[in-house]
Amino acid sequence: MYTEKVMDHFMNPRNVGEIENPDGVGEVGNAKCGDIMRIYLDVDGDIIKDVKFKTFGCGAAVATSSMVTEMVKGKTIEEALKITNAAVAEALDGLPPAKMHCSNLAADALHEAIKDYHQKTLKV
Amino acid sequence: MYTEKVMDHFMNPRNVGEIENPDGVGEVGNAKCGDIMRIYLDVDGDIIKDVKFKTFGCGAAVATSSMVTEMVKGKTIEEALKITNAAVAEALDGLPPAKMHCSNLAADALHEAIKDYHQKTLKV
Amino acid sequence: MRRVYLDHSATTPVDPEVAKLMMTYYTEKYGNPSSVHSFGRDAKAALENARESVAKLLGAQPTEITFTSGGTEADNLAIIGTAEAQSKKGKHIITSAVEHHAVLETCEFLEKNGYELTIVPVDEEGLIAVEDVEKAIRPDTILITIMHANNEVGTIQPIAEIGKLARDKGIVFHVDAVQSFGKIPIDVVAMNVDLMTVSSHKIYGPKGVGALYIRKGVRVIPRIYGGGQEKKRRSGTENTPGIIGFGKACEIAAQRMEEEAAREAKLRDKLLEGIMEKIDYVKLNGPQGEKRLPGILNVSIQFIEGEALLLSLDMMGIAASSGSACTSGSLDPSHVLLAMGLTHEIAHGSLRFSFGRQNTEEDVDYVLEQLPKIVERLRMMSPLYDQ
Amino acid sequence: MRRVYLDHSATTPVDPEVAKLMMTYYTEKYGNPSSVHSFGRDAKAALENARESVAKLLGAQPTEITFTSGGTEADNLAIIGTAEAQSKKGKHIITSAVEHHAVLETCEFLEKNGYELTIVPVDEEGLIAVEDVEKAIRPDTILITIMHANNEVGTIQPIAEIGKLARDKGIVFHVDAVQSFGKIPIDVVAMNVDLMTVSSHKIYGPKGVGALYIRKGVRVIPRIYGGGQEKKRRSGTENTPGIIGFGKACEIAAQRMEEEAAREAKLRDKLLEGIMEKIDYVKLNGPQGEKRLPGILNVSIQFIEGEALLLSLDMMGIAASSGSACTSGSLDPSHVLLAMGLTHEIAHGSLRFSFGRQNTEEDVDYVLEQLPKIVERLRMMSPLYDQ
Ligand SMILES: Cc1ncc(COP(=O)(O)O)c(C=O)c1O
Ligand SMILES: Cc1ncc(COP(=O)(O)O)c(C=O)c1O
Ligand code: FES
Ligand code: FES
């Protein structure tokens, strides 16, 4: 069902956790639909210095969360904004068709976190 | 499917053949329906001295023909007239439901042969 | 790694004795039961022998058993076949909110084709109230279809009472007994059942075989036309090895049922107690005690999602199942758990362990060793879990 | 006593390699392919692998294969499923006089429910004329269903030509290929087929398994509702061991087809020659040469009835079949033989020998030794035979 990469990221998820006083937080999904993803960003200048996630969801949801954090760590905000759902799924060697909406969530959560960062920065 | 008795009468049919100048001949069925039975009688006084049959038909048709000849041999005409289809089937320890019409034929052929005998006797 | 299969409600291994018998009919006594020759007659005799074994476990007559390709086909035959046979009398059907998809989807297919459906609710234990069924009955009701025991939570319904009601009103009563058959006693006569679905692969028989009990005199329009097998009720070359295996499985089930039910109930209770002791925020789904199947345990583990649980258990060799939507890729979790009033969140975290003949105390110990660690790990990842 | 099985058109033994593989999936890899855990995933992977093997032997894509419980169910799904999907366009169906009951009875069921049927005749060899199909087409024709090879006499129909006709007119074309599949080459694309029925137990796979090829884009309304297996086209827990066995049987058939066809044709011809030489008043039913399946020989032995022949052969260990009505207890003999213009008498005395992998020259010799004696004995009993 899942690729080896998905299973690896599910069993050994990267960057699990929270960041205290994050520069940006994004949350998508809801428990009613069976999935919630929350992504925390620590931004230094334009660079994403640290990123963490917490996810309630299936194997694909956890794996995409983990993968997206790995993909953005050390990247610029601009680069991060270019990460698409398809790119996350591809980085995991693909997802089962029924699970494609999980990959939609991970990139969405990231983009929400960046939006939050932008809002916070503007406010400052 | 068939009882042992049916198979015995089918594989080793009694009284197969024809009687030359018979006292009575009865034929029922037709090849179109897949069965024809012909029964020949040799009557002495009131006693059925000899009886033979020829049958085109399934295993049950052959077995009932054979059985009915065995049942009437040496009997009086009156006794023979009392032989029913059910009695023939019973003597064979039963027939499959789908094959009950075959047992109808054997007793019918016998009765036809007796009718023929009566007609011939009257004419004499 | 230890492998612990706790998903017997989904399917069971074939009993070795059953498998051995089937082999003979695959490779040696392979005749078509419709054939006149001895190969055919041998197959036919064994087929009828199997029919007797199935009938016996239901308290039915062999002539009342129609073999099908499984529980799903039997459910379809019962429901659509009755609807078509009775459509002049009326077009109203009663079922429950916790039926298997094989019943619900079939009823919904009929609904799209001009029939009316009343879906009776269940309480928080998954139990149907006989009064609710009674209230749902209308002059044009032609069929009541209610399952015997639920496949997700194990709740056993008051079939005999509903059957009496249906019989009194002259309404055809169909029971999906796929989960209860061979696990707890069934007597179609005492239960006033007209049609009953059973399936082989839930009782250590082969997949792809089932049967519909059709009470003598009850009319069902066939769904599959052809060579007229199964007294014209279900055409198609009979799956003789499968049916013979099913018959054997019924014989074995009849022998072991009582002892095995007690044994599995004990394992189940041990597992439940252990889980409750070792993990917090856990909810038992379904009734306690007598009103449930001995072999099924369904719990909701809060703050985590079912598929993630299943995958993690699987990595440790433990096979279970979940009513989570994510296991199937749909969005709504189990209709059964929702009908019992669970919130989506709780339903998503449900876990079903279903016991079988080869399970041991050691299996339970192993699960109790692994599960808490898995729950801990997943909860640490969950945004819903704030200790 | 020697046992000679010459009834492979009725059913075949399961290939030992197939049986062995199935065993593994009955007793070890017994998971439900819908399950998330490894037991389920193993089953699922093998299931999809089998789908590829079936597709390959048809020249189809795996996604175009829907597994069923056999040829009969596949025929029903194809015919009723198309009729329901296309009912707005029209209600006229074309079929032939020599179809299997699974097709004919299904068409007649539809006829009783408001559809119209045109039954195309055959010539004395059992062959359909493409022009007759063409003439039968009307503006409201929604389905043409014609078999590839006949199960009683082995006649092979001009499927590609009929397929071209149907495709040109935009009419769905269903082919019952139960007898030809795995025996002679099939290419659904080259043949312009939309739907094709195949069955496992005719090619040394298990009984109770079949498949319907549904060309991409062709719509068929399902017949069985439930868990949504087989992409919702056919619900019900998949008969994984059976399907996996079917897949293996396809692989083996693909390897052996050419060689085996030639071998069986040789045995068949030897038997025919021997019968013609040793027995008088015998008629070959069906075509000579290319237009017939390699493994089927059908002869009418005059003045005797088929069931009597079968029983006598069976006593000598020889298993064959007959188009006699008396084998089934009905009154009319084979509709196929009657459609070919045989009289009732001749049709009643028909005998089908169908060859398979384990048959040898010695088998043929044995039949040629026994059959004349049996014919002699039965003719002596027959009132129709006056030498
Ligand atoms: C209650 C219930 N009904 C029907 C079915 C369907 O039976 P089958 O799997 O034999 O198609 C199942 C199992 O899947 C079931 O648990
Ligand atoms: C031509 C043909 N169609 C359909 C069938 C039915 O297939 P099954 O036996 O798998 O139901 C058969 C065999 O019985 C057949 O020979
Ligand atoms: S979170 Fe439900 S399918 Fe992935
Ligand atoms: S003669 Fe046809 S069934 Fe007996």
TrEMBL record, chains A, B:
What biological-process terms (Gene Ontology) are attached?
Answer: iron-sulfur cluster assembly
Domain NIF system FeS cluster assembly NifU N-terminal as annotated: residue spans? 1-122
Q: Which GO terms describe its molecular function?
A: iron ion binding; iron-sulfur cluster binding
Pfam families per the UniProt record, alphabetical: NifU_N
Q: Which domain of life is it from?
A: Bacteria
Q: Which InterPro entries match?
A: NIF_FeS_clus_asmbl_NifU-like, NIF_FeS_clus_asmbl_NifU_N
Q: What is this protein called?
A: FeS cluster assembly scaffold protein NifU
